[in-house]
Amino acid sequence: MRRLRTGISLGLAVVLGAGWYIFQHRAVPKSGADGFATGVATPAGLASATKGDIPVVIRALGTVTALNTVNVKTQITGQLIKVDFQEGQLVKQGDMLALVDPRPYDVALQQAIGQQQKDEALLKNAQVDLERYKKLVAQDSIARQQYDTQISLVRQYEAALVIDQAQVDAAKLNVTYTRIVAPLTGRIGLRSVDPGNYVTMADAISICTIIQVQPISVVFTIPEDTLPSVRTRLRVGASLEVRTLDRTQKMELGVGRLSTSDNAIDITTGTVKLRAIFDNADENLFPNQFVNVRLLVDTVKDATVVPVAAIQRGQPGNFVHLVKADDTVEIRPVELGKSDGEKVQIVKGLTVGDQVVVDGADRLRDGAKIRRPAGASLRTTSGPPVAAGPPDRQASQDEQGRTQRAQDTADAPHGGAQAASQRPRQVHGDGGGSGRPAQTDQ
């Protein structure tokens, strides 16, 4: 009796195992030798080739550089008695910044003026004597030599007045230098010298530093291979637009124009420096700031464009999965042109209106069937790819049926395997949701 029960148990185990094996192999669609499901429609995101403009942009790294930077120093020697600026202040050209003690230079000016007036009096007296000697010489009353000596004396006094005038002007200039003014319009930095210090022209430390911030420039480098296209545009008088972005490339800091290029290529790096000028009215650009630069060299008009995600690379070179009218795909080699990072120009291989796969291309091969996104429009050349559509209703029902049959088989203690083997079962030779009539497993 025990052997009979053991044999029955073994038989039931064999039947259950055979039923499970048949269920698993009938439920899974057949696969080809390359791993792609045979006859199964693969969901894919699509886009259409359209007409558009492709901006030719050179990306570079740059540094904000002030057009003018001035270290403010004294031009005379004396005690700094007053400072009239605040650190970080925006000053205009000619604004008063500091004052050096002017009293010694006022005294020197008065001394120079006094010497000038003395020499003017001597000159007038010498000129009167010269007129008198001229008449006496005409009457032969004095020697000719005395008259010539007086002429020379008058010229000496005239020369002395020229020197005196120069000394007066120098003294006035020194008095002017006691007032230290801003040499340009810009933003002032931190103060380096405090009032009360004795300052001289030989001091290594400046009183302060002024940097011009409006306008301001950005110096950046580009590869030497891209230089010819830039110079060609500059030679025809084009004004090339330059945009700057912050370190994260999320915020635009300013829009300017390319000003000039350096006169030589750096042979160690193979790059050349360029300078762009920005108005910087909002002062978003700060001296010595690191920025990302976008130089717009040219724009390709009315090009045939597709999203960059549509381009695949393999043995044929650059290719796309072209969607045909029967929802199958064809591998179509294409020739690429310019790209702006989001869309790319198709020089050869596609026409406007052709549909290409932009999402799910890694699961496709030549001639494979696709399933279009349900209720979604085609993707244009901008924006994220269209997500694959959900499985259709028939496929969902088939999956629920397979799950229910597996549950019934697991719940039956003795007759479950036999019931499962006798229950009609659908065979999906062409994949779930294909619409073929169900067959009965004999």
Describe the structure.
By secondary structure, the protein is α+β, with helices and mostly antiparallel strands. The protein is built from 6 helices and 23 strands. A hairpin with a 5-residue loop joins strand 18 and strand 19. The chain is elongated, with a radius of gyration of 46 Å. Mean pLDDT is 81; it is low at 27-35, 382-397 and 409-442.
Radius of gyration: 46 Å
* Unreliable sequence segments: 27-35, 382-397, 409-442
Mean pLDDT: 81
How many strand units? 23
Biggest beta sheet attributes: 6 strands, antiparallel, barrel
Helix/strand order, N-terminal first:
HEEEEEEEHHEEEEEHEEEEEEEEEEEHH
Strand content: 25-35%
Calculate the terminal CA-CA distance, rounded to whole Å. 34 Å
Major sheet strand order: 3-12-15-14-13-16
- Class from secondary-structure proportions: alpha+beta
* Number of helices, counting only DSSP H or I runs of 4 residues or more: 6
Q: How does the overall form come out from the CA principal axes? A: elongated
SSE blueprint and pairings:
Layout (H helix, E strand, L loop, with lengths): L1 H26 L14 E2 L1 E4 L1 E16 L3 E4 L5 E6 L6 E2 L4 E5 L2 H36 L5 H34 L1 E3 L4 E3 L9 E2 L8 E4 L4 E8 L3 H9 L5 E5 L6 E10 L9 E8 L11 E18 L4 E3 L2 E7 L5 E5 L1 E5 L3 E6 L6 E5 L10 E2 L21 H19 L4 H7 L20
Parallel strand pairs: 1-23
Antiparallel strand pairs: 2-22, 3-12, 3-16, 4-11, 5-7, 5-10, 6-9, 7-8, 9-11, 12-15, 13-14, 13-16, 14-15, 16-21, 17-18, 18-19, 20-21
Helix pairs in contact: 1-6, 2-3, 5-6
